[in-house]
Amino acid sequence: MTTRKFYEEELCELKQSLTSMCLAVERMIEDSIKALVEQDGELARSVVARDKRVDETELDIEKRCMRLLLIEQPVARDFREVSTALKLITDIERIGDQAADIAEIVSNLKDEAYIKRLTHTVRMGRLAVRMVHDGVASFINGDEALADETIARDDEMDALFLTVKNELVELIKKDSSNADQAIMFMMIAKYLERIGDHAVNVCEWTKYSETGVHIKY
Q1: pLDDT in tens, 3-14
Q2: Which CATH number do you get for residue 23?
């Protein structure tokens, strides 16, 4: 097997592992929001338990990246592709952490009657999943246009977060007994907003991989 062919096969396996890691955290986000809506403590606990597997996958991919960098010593675009994968797994792992954090909050809410409808929070959850999925897909496929589209969606995420925040502030003003649950809902919204930020990071590094220029948005 030629050195180039070996490198390409290793990179293909690396991208497959990255895709699997992404799908795992997408499911964690989906299930954490489902657990919130349905007040399903068992599902929430399963999300928390899955975070360990995401951490293990991150370590495995990191080792593969380092092996490629040290043994194959790629240059130019090849180097950028592997170094970008290293950056991406950090963001994806943190997304898993935040999905687990949401699930922890859901576990603490138990069977409390909710002080508000979860319409905007659910929308944030769906948007978060889409941004994460498309962000990683943009890297796997070398799709700058998809990366740009995903970055642009962060404005919608920020607007939804402000809507949720304002709703919760008003609920506390009306009745201070709403404060404890309002804070929990605020934390959930903040974690979802941060997931959007991590998806943007993924897209920024994807654009670097394609162009050699890293621009913060």
Answers
A1: 778 888 989 999
A2: 1.20.58.220
Q: Which amino acid is at 184?
A: M
The token duo for 41 is: 């403590």
Residues above pLDDT 70, as percent of the chain: 99
The dihedrals phi and psi of 214, each to the nearest 5 degrees, come to: -105, 115
| Residue 153 lies inside a defined structural domain of this protein | yes
Whole domain around residue 143: which residue ranges?
A: 3-211
Contact call for residues 163 and 187 (beta carbons, < 8 A): no
Q: How far is CA 156 from the centre of its chain?
A: 16
Whether residue 217 is contained in a domain is answered as no
Give 48-51 contacts, CB < 8 A, sequence gap 24+. Answer: 48/100, 48/103, 48/104, 48/107, 50/24, 50/96, 50/100, 51/96, 51/97, 51/99, 51/100
Question: What's the whole-number mean pLDDT along residues 11-24?
Answer: 96
| Contact by Cβ (8 Å): 172, 179 | yes
SS3 content of the chain, % helix, strand, coil (to 5): 90, 0, 10
Residue 76 lies in a domain: yes
pLDDT digits 0-9 by tens, 22-54? 999 999 999 999 999 999 999 999 999 999 999
| Residues shown for the chain | 217
Sign, Cα dihedral of 64, 16, 194, 202:
positive
pLDDT at 2: 62
59 contacts 133 by C-beta, under 8 angstroms: no
pLDDT exceeds 90 at position 217: no
Number of structural domains (the chain) is 1
Whether residue 216 lies inside any domain: the answer is no
Neighbours of 3 (CB within 10 A): 9
